[in-house]
Amino acid sequence: MLELAIKFLLSYFLGSFMGSLVVGKIRGGVDIRTMGSGNAGGTNALRTHGKLFALGVVLIDVLKAVVAVAVIPQIGVAPGAVLPWLEVACGAAAVIGHCYPIYFGFRGGKGMATLIGVYAVISPLALLVVVLTWLACLALFGYVGVATMLGAAAAPVYAALSGHGISSPLLLFSLAMAMLIVYTHRGNLARLHAGNEHRMFRSLLSRRH
């Protein structure tokens, strides 16, 4: 239990390093939380500062999750049966840290880029399902937030259909993360219901930066 707590906290602290604020400091102290939607994630980075800025943000947010899941659980000696649980616990901590970063006043991103980094380590097939679902929903609806929520929701569906029981690390983790992603996108849902959610993806891709 002590090992789990320590590794969870380490992963949370690592997840709290926000790609947008790191890249923003490199770019002269830019804080995208004061711009656009006020969110510190990749979508707002793309909206406010363009593709290269957003790429740097997403890379950092993905890679910190990869380190949290691939490296931190391996520190010390853990029984083989425990390792999958340590991996999903560290992955969840990294995503929570991204959404509620201790270093930045608990004002972070919405979690999807970091979640992608987790799936890249614990289940590349789940990652493929998430990405394909995201792309399909984006093409169909044009809303980044809707595509993101449905992409996250596709992971537990994949886990269940591929034989992972309700007590498996992957299914429990993917269910919890899908709910978290929906929660962090609650503002998108409210705007969608009000009819003022932006279909911004196509216009952003066409912009030159």
Q: How would you describe this structure to a colleague?
A:
The termini are far apart. With 209 residues, the chain is mainly α. It is 69% helix and 0% strand. It has helices spanning 2-15, 19-26, 42-49, 51-70, 83-99, 112-122, 124-141, 144-161, 169-184, 186-194, 201-206. It has one domain. The protein is built from eleven helices and no strands. Helix 4 (51-70) packs antiparallel against helix 5 (83-99), helix 5 packs antiparallel against helix 6 and helix 8 (144-161) packs antiparallel against helix 9. 47% of the residues are buried. Mean pLDDT is 86; it is low at 203-209. The longest helix is centred in the first third of the chain and has 20 residues, at 51-70.
